Amino acid sequence: MNPDAARYQAVLIGASLGGAEALQVLLGGLHTDLPAPIVVAQHLGPGVSHLPTILNRVSRHPVLWAEDGQVTAPGHVYLCPGRTLVRLEPDGTLTVQPKPGRSSLGQVDDLFCAAATSLGPQVLALVLTGLGSDGTAGAVAVRQAGGTVIVQDEHTATAFGMPSAVITAGAADLVLPLGELPDLLDRVVGCGRPVPTPGVRASEAMFAAGGRVGRLMSTLDWGATSLGPVERWPAALRETLAVVLASPVPMDLMWGPDLLQLYNDAYSDIIRERHPEALGRSVYRVWPDAEATFGPVLRQVLDTGTAVRLVDQPFVVNRSGHLEEVFATVAYSPVRHEGEVAGVLATLVETTDQVRDARRLATLHRLAATARQANDTTSDQEVCEWLMRALTANSQDVPFALVYLVEGRGARAHLAASTGLAADSPALDPLVTPGRPSVWPLHACLREAAPQVVEDLDTRFPDLVSGTWAEPPHTAVVLPVGPVRDGVPAALLVLGVNSHAPLDEGYHRFFDLVTERVAATLAAARTHREQQRQVTALGELNRAKTTFFANISHEFRTPLTLLLLPLEEQLTALPPEHLDTARIAHRNALRLLRLVNTLLAFAELEEGRGTPSFEDVDDLAALTEELAEVFRPAVERAGLRLVTDCPPLGRQVRLDPGMWQTVVLNLLSNALKHTFTGSITVALRAQRGHVELAVTDTGTGIDAAEIPHLFTRFHRIEGARARSREGSGIGLALVRQLVSWHHGSVRVRSVPGTGSTFTVWVPFVRARHEHDRPARVQADTSARARQAFAEEAESWLASDSYLVDDHAPRPGPRAGVLVVDDNADMRNYLRHLLQDSYDVHTASTGEEALDRLDHHRVDLIISDVVLPHLDGVRLIEHVRADPALRGTPIILLTALGTRPQTVRGLAGGAHDYLVKPFAAKELLARVEAQLALRRVRTAAAERPAT
């Protein structure tokens, strides 16, 4: 140990009775070479001339008599002669003079007082065994000068007078047994450690429990700092530091006017390269920017005594030789001593990972949002520009970025967009081809379809300017952007790396996610553009189809008019025997007219060419009830009850009456078609701001899975029980369209097997606009339209007239023909054609046909293909499975005249296939031909074998 740096410059020992023996134990127990001289004042008795010899035998330090003017040397023991006055001068020399009165009493006090005056706090005084009180005044002087006084305890002292007097005077810093005094000198003088007072021992235990930093603290010379020796530290400092050292949370205790730092292991892990130089140094010297960053907070805590919490505070620390950004949430708390704020305790929770993760997650969210914006782009170039804008907001993690679009199966790549670099930056390589070298390893990335890390940006681009730090990025990563087809990526992405963050696993994972998002956005934009192209094409096709429907519907009206007018004349003039066929023709012409009107109205609404013609309807209840009465004959004929509950609304309703008629009649037609028992209720009510129409039936109901599709045009519910399978499939779609034109809505509630309720809401009043009365939608409000609905409903219920009387006598045997069709008019017309030549039986469903076959002889079956539940093809399967019916010829009728339908019917076992419309003579010829063939087959089967 350097003597100049020693805490004590002299060790003084005072002893009397028993002192010689005590000195032997003390000097003989020393194990270190003390860096200070030892001066002993001993009340010498007989035989004193031999004391140096005795002590030299046990002491590792030379023992000699003190002489006047002698220069003391470290590690030497000087014995004061008896009856002398010995002084230790500031220059380390001894002054030895005869003591007046030739007595040794007071010799210890003289030595201690002189040394206290000369050396002050650099004196360590030991009071050993002895009688009397010599040394007490000297001990007091040493204490007052800042030195240290150690006293031998009473249990090991031969005479306890001198030690006891010092203790009584309050001048003893520490009382120890004689056997511990050598170790004390080795520790305090030899090793320069503090005197092990209770406070020092507690501090040492504290340091020992403080991990690496604590052990380092125990070796430092705190006396050389403004904190002073550890034994003199305030209790508040020691107690707070004990908490700091024992805590697993990073904590930094800043104490005193200079705010010297005392911290723990966890905090040293954060500051890394600044440790251990930061230990015991002012925070302002350790952190040069502290005055401008967290200095104001420290002053606030010191001045006000209130704690302050700062969230996600940024720091720059040197870790492994590289500057790195660090974030922490810091709580600055005051530490008080004697009522005043003496220090600040900073408790840190590092949030670097959380801040980076949040920053990167926000970037990914922005990229995801860009995917929605990119759907409106017209090219991949625009998509890339949007993506670069999203990355611009995070210049910390992505200081710069470039995206190259790959063309020609990897033959070339052009720079589509970039961010974070100046327009003239050499890092912007506009075009990459096989014969042209690139500043980036793009060729390798294309060839391997794997990421490439570039770590020499400072040499590639010496003047690169990018990112938020003064120090530009050193590293970049080139990544392939999927999808990778035939080993060639769709694009290449160059991403710069933060110069103050490590390129660790988390950074790589972030770049991978960015790449995936870029790939997904490019793919989604391309898919969206393709979908838009298809939608445009489909829209054009749909408009062409709608225009065709509109045109053809217009064209149908003229011939339909020329059909209906003559028929209506003939119905009043024909004889009774011809009225049936005329009524069939008239009824189906009306039905065709209704279908044409529906298609035309729907086509105009789809095209947007038609809008409602609004009127102020005074009595909507009367109009609704009038429309419901159109269906009363058919409803009652079906054995159902029609309930109308339409009280006056008491106010006008602004709507298009023709459209309202179409809505009501379609809902009633739908209800009757699917209701077989119970009732149909039409209710109209005034609600707040709206009129509510509800059409409720007790019919078959609708499955919940079908309800979302119910108002979709051309949608049909397969297998649903209905009075007829016929229809355009756009009635409910038209209802919703017409209601929406009135700024209303329609809803259905249904329970299978119980019934359904269709509810329509239409506002009472709409703001009048100039376009309220344009050219009207072709919604037919004539009596003929109502008649068409009524006639069609009646046709569902028409019974088979002119049935063959099986019991009536017939001239000769006649062949039996079964006609199966769910359209009553078609059944009756076919019966009318065939009844003169054949016994005709009819059925409306496949199940009913099987029942007829069980009870009647049938030689030929004529069946429609489209039947409810059991259709025509499945009916054939049942017939062919019955040995008694297997040979019965079957002719299928269908309105679906496509080749696949024909092949399906013939493959299923039909003998013939006839497409509607057909000529009556053709049907009769085919029936006769099939019956003739049946007779030939029967005769051949009955002829005996030869």
Walk me through what this model shows.
There is one protein chain. With 946 residues, the chain is α/β, with parallel strands linked by helices. It is built from 28 helices and 32 strands. α4 crosses α5 (161-168), α18 crosses α22 (731-741) and α18 (576-607) crosses α23. Strands 3-4-2-1-7-8-9 form a 7-stranded parallel β-sheet, sandwiched between helices. Strands 17-16-15-20-19-18 form a 6-stranded antiparallel β-sheet, sandwiched between helices. Residues 1-5, 769-781 and 801-809 have low confidence and may be disordered. α26 links the parallel β30 and β31. Helix content is 40%, strand content 20%.
Secondary structure layout:
Elements: E1 10-15, H1 19-28, E2 38-42, H2 51-58, E3 63-65, E4 77-79, E5 84-88, E6 94-98, H3 107-119, E7 123-127, H4 136-144, E8 148-152, H5 161-168, E9 174-176, H6 181-190, H7 198-208, H8 211-219, H9 235-246, E10 251-255, E11 260-263, H10 265-271, H11 283-286, H12 295-304, E12 308-319, E13 322-337, E14 340-350, H13 352-374, H14 380-392, E15 401-407, E16 412-419, E17 431-432, H15 442-448, E18 452-454, H16 457-460, E19 476-481, E20 491-496, H17 505-571, H18 576-607, E21 615-617, H19 620-629, H20 632-637, E22 641-645, E23 653-655, H21 657-673, E24 679-687, E25 690-697, H22 731-741, E26 745-751, E27 755-763, H23 783-797, E28 816-820, H24 824-834, E29 839-843, H25 846-855, E30 860-864, H26 872-881, E31 890-894, H27 899-907, E32 912-915, H28 920-942
Helix pairs in contact: 1-2, 3-4, 4-5, 7-8, 7-9, 13-14, 13-17, 14-17, 17-18, 18-22, 18-23, 19-21, 21-22, 21-23, 25-26
